[in-house]
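User: Hi! I have a protein structure encoded as tokens and I'd like to know what sequence might fold into it. I'm fairly new to this, so please keep things simple.
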């Protein structure tokens, strides 16, 4: 499934979702070794990634993580994010062992209502000058 040459984890996220934007900021804060790079699903590279993953069910409700030459989507991507951050956050990675039909059900349910719960940005957020190098 991999057609990328990234040497670091890349998180593709909904750039107009306020919740998603806050989670990217959370990752930046807790990713002390600066492993992650980021791109919005609305960007050209995000759209290309959706094509590479070749899953017609993917859209901006999804999150995609490229990590160790694989693409992880939805709840699996979230669990791997915690693995990469490490520390005690690694414990949340253990959710990967739950059946994906259950974890993806809750992921999709939350994703469906995230704009109503947290709001939507008028345009994709712009990284700060201090974090710009981490965005593709």
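Assistant: Happy to help. Inverse folding works backwards from shape to sequence: for each of the 136 positions I chose a residue that suits the local structure. Here it is:
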């Amino acid at each position: 499934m991999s057609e990328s040459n990234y040497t670091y984890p890349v998180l593709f996220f909904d750039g107009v979702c306020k919740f998603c934007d806050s989670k990217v900021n959370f990752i930046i804060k807790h990713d002390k070794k600066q492993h992650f790079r980021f791109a919005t699903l609305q960007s050209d590279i995000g759209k290309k990634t959706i094509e590479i993953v070749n899953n017609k069910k993917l859209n901006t409700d999804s999150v995609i993580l490229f990590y160790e030459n694989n693409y992880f989507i939805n709840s699996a991507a979230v669990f791997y994010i915690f693995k990469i951050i490490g520390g005690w956050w690694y414990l949340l990675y253990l959710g990967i062992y739950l059946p994906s039909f259950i974890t993806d059900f809750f992921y999709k349910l939350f994703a469906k209502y995230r704009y109503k719960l947290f709001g939507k940005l008028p345009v994709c957020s712009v990284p700060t000058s201090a974090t710009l190098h981490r965005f593709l």
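A useful reference point when you look it over: The chain has one domain: 10-121. Feel free to ask if any position seems puzzling.
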